[in-house]
UniProtKB/TrEMBL annotation, chain A:
<dbReference type="InterPro" id="IPR012675">
    <property type="entry name" value="Beta-grasp_dom_sf"/>
</dbReference>
<feature type="domain" description="2Fe-2S ferredoxin-type">
    <location>
        <begin position="2"/>
        <end position="95"/>
    </location>
</feature>
<dbReference type="GO" id="GO:0051537">
    <property type="term" value="F:2 iron, 2 sulfur cluster binding"/>
</dbReference>
<dbReference type="InterPro" id="IPR006058">
    <property type="entry name" value="2Fe2S_fd_BS"/>
</dbReference>
<dbReference type="InterPro" id="IPR001041">
    <property type="entry name" value="2Fe-2S_ferredoxin-type"/>
</dbReference>
<dbReference type="InterPro" id="IPR036010">
    <property type="entry name" value="2Fe-2S_ferredoxin-like_sf"/>
</dbReference>
<dbReference type="Pfam" id="PF00111">
    <property type="entry name" value="Fer2"/>
</dbReference>
<protein>
    <submittedName>
        <fullName>2Fe-2S iron-sulfur cluster binding domain-containing protein</fullName>
    </submittedName>
</protein>
TrEMBL record, chain B:
<dbReference type="InterPro" id="IPR008254">
    <property type="entry name" value="Flavodoxin/NO_synth"/>
</dbReference>
<keyword id="KW-0285">Flavoprotein</keyword>
<dbReference type="InterPro" id="IPR016440">
    <property type="entry name" value="Rubredoxin-O_OxRdtase"/>
</dbReference>
<protein>
    <submittedName>
        <fullName>FprA family A-type flavoprotein</fullName>
    </submittedName>
</protein>
<dbReference type="Pfam" id="PF19583">
    <property type="entry name" value="ODP"/>
</dbReference>
<dbReference type="GO" id="GO:0009055">
    <property type="term" value="F:electron transfer activity"/>
</dbReference>
<dbReference type="InterPro" id="IPR029039">
    <property type="entry name" value="Flavoprotein-like_sf"/>
</dbReference>
<keyword id="KW-0288">FMN</keyword>
<dbReference type="GO" id="GO:0016491">
    <property type="term" value="F:oxidoreductase activity"/>
</dbReference>
Length: 95, 420
């Protein structure tokens, strides 16, 4: 199965995961400093920054895009409960 | 019901609420409060700055009508959208449909929730934007998080008046209204800062950078006395209050780690000592250990404000961490703990939920929790104390940025969760 490496910069942990894993599934378990609210892509509580590797992330869905825009997120922001890792190397941090 | 003049063509049109004793559930006031709204007349139209709480709307409209007709109102400014200042807005917009609404760029999402209407015309503004009333200009200062994300201040340039929103405000009701006329409101001013503004210390400093150069001749806040006598004193006081409450002698030379613990049989206390010993093996970390039983929440909050890392040691009793630990944690909303390092440990009898509950709470406060907590069943063995030392050392390494990067697989992660 194709793999991806996700590095949580705030805690210095890299996790090797199957491609297609949602960020929230990893971030919750490693204890990265990301918080969650609705877990359904509506509240933007889980907004996080992709430091590098955005090209290895799933495209924003219409819903995620709308919520991010409403919260004045930059292009490097994603919702942990929505975004999936597709492969390669991705580095993320809270905020 | 008459409006009160602050300067030619500038009136207070707010409302008094002398019987209020509790504001927003968490805030007390022994003197009620005022909801200050203002009306500014220019050669080409009138501006209304903020409104009042809904149940005081009648007073607001009566005062407004004393100084303007509705069809003269060209501009409505909301310095932030909290209901105590926007309660009369829907009705005001019905009475003055031609008026244009000016809100901060960060207020746009909230506005929909407030007015339950999509087709509302408004202009989002940022620092540097302004609106003209002919011979007078309103300039906007974006001062986010004081205390709402969308907070702004409005500067009436020609008159040197700053409409500051909740900044420089307080809950104090006195119909004499001006700071040189009302009773002694110093306590209320300080209390308001400590409970409303203190968590946003860094944002207060940013806002002061914008406000100080203006040297306002009068500050008109959204609650409490209007500051016309020596307004600079209040600006200066905010500067003083915005530096941390305790000076940290360790300064830039060392990171500070504070360990708070509580122990009923001495087990969690022994763990605390071991965590300290471990952390002290790392150079450049100053460690302090406090037994929560021997102190009050207030001073501990001051310590946390200045610390780089905080560790909580709590036994698990009845499936929960103990109350003094929660008391301190719930008071941490008074300061900014975002991005500080946090960790937890503790001994337990049957089950050890306290540690993960504390970790979750710290994450909720947006702290970083990089090292998994240590839990020990009853009396710690030598091996377990060694684990505590390693945990302390790990934390200290994280604090000083010397962390050894870890690489793990998803399977390992799932396995470690199953054991936790
Ligand atoms: S948790 Fe609400 S959007 Fe992700
Ligand atoms: Fe407010
Ligand atoms: Fe307010």
């Amino acid at each position: 199965m194709p793999k991806a490496n996700v590095t949580f910069e705030d805690i210095g942990v890299t996790v090797t995961v199957p491609a297609g894993t949602r960020l929230i599934e990893i971030s919750e378990k490693v204890g990265a400093g990301i918080t969650y609210g609705c877990r359904e892509g509506e509240c933007a509580t889980c907004m996080m920054r992709i430091v590098s590797g955005m090209e290895n992330m799933s495209e924003r869905s219409v819903l995620e895009d709308k919520v991010l825009q409403e919260n004045m997120a930059g292009r490097q922001h994603r919702l942990a409960c929505q975004a999936q890792v597709l492969g390669g190397e991705v580095v993320v941090r809270p905020g | 019901m008459s409006a009160i003049e602050l300067a030619p063509g500038v009136h207070w049109i707010g409302a008094l609420d002398p019987d209020l004793r509790e504001f927003d559930i968490i805030l007390k006031t022994a003197n009620g409060t005022t909801y200050n709204a203002y009306c500014v007349r220019g050669s080409e139209g009138v501006a209304v700055i903020d409104t009042v709480k809904e149940n005081r709307a009648e007073d607001f409209f009566a005062r407004l009508e004393a100084v303007t007709a509705y069809d003269e109102i060209k501009v409505i400014v909301l310095n932030h959208l909290e209901p105590d200042h926007t309660g009369a807005l829907p009705e005001l917009m019905r009475r003055a449909p031609q008026a244009r609404l000016y809100i901060s760029i960060k207020a746009q999402i909230m506005l929909k929730g407030l007015l339950k209407s999509d087709e509302l015309a408004y202009t989002p503004v940022n620092t540097g934007d302004s609106v003209s009333l002919g011979d007078r200009t309103l300039r906007f200062l974006h001062t986010p998080f004081l205390h709402w994300p969308d907070t702004q201040c409005t500067w009436l340039e020609e008159a040197g008046i700053l409409f500051s929103g909740d900044v420089f405000g307080c809950h104090y009701c006195d119909p004499r209204l001006f700071n040189d006329k009302v009773g002694d409101f110093r306590f209320s001013f300080e209390y308001y800062y400590q409970h409303i503004m203190r968590p946003f210390r860094e944002h207060v400093l940013d806002a002061l950078e914008l406000i100080e150069p203006l040297a306002p001749g009068l500050i008109a806040p959204a609650h409490g006395p209007i500051l016309r006598d020596a307004p600079a004193r209040y600006v200066h006081r905010y500067r003083q209050l915005a530096v941390p409450q305790l000076q940290n002698e360790a300064g830039d030379h060392a990171k500070t780690l504070v360990i708070f613990y509580l122990s009923s049989y001495g087990n969690t206390a022994r763990m605390a000592q071991a965590v300290r010993d471990g952390a002290e093996e790392v150079d450049g970390v100053r460690v302090s250990v406090y037994d929560l039983q021997g102190g009050e929440v207030g001073p501990f909050v001051d310590l946390v404000e200045g610390a780089d890392g905080i560790v909580f040691g709590s036994p698990t009793i009845n499936g929960d961490a103990v109350k003094p630990v929660w008391d301190l944690l719930s008071s941490l909303t008074m300061v900014n703990v975002r991005d500080k390092f946090g960790a937890a440990f503790g001994s337990y009898g049957w089950s050890g939920e306290a540690v993960s509950m504390l970790e979750d709470r710290m994450r909720g406060l947006k702290m970083r929790v990089p090292v998994k907590g240590v839990r020990v069943k009853l009396i710690p063995t030598d091996d377990e104390l060694t684990l505590c030392r390693a945990f302390g050392r790990d934390l200290a390494l994280n604090l000083t940025g010397q962390v050894v990067r870890k690489v793990i697989t998803m399977e390992e992660l799932n396995r470690s969760q199953a054991h936790a």
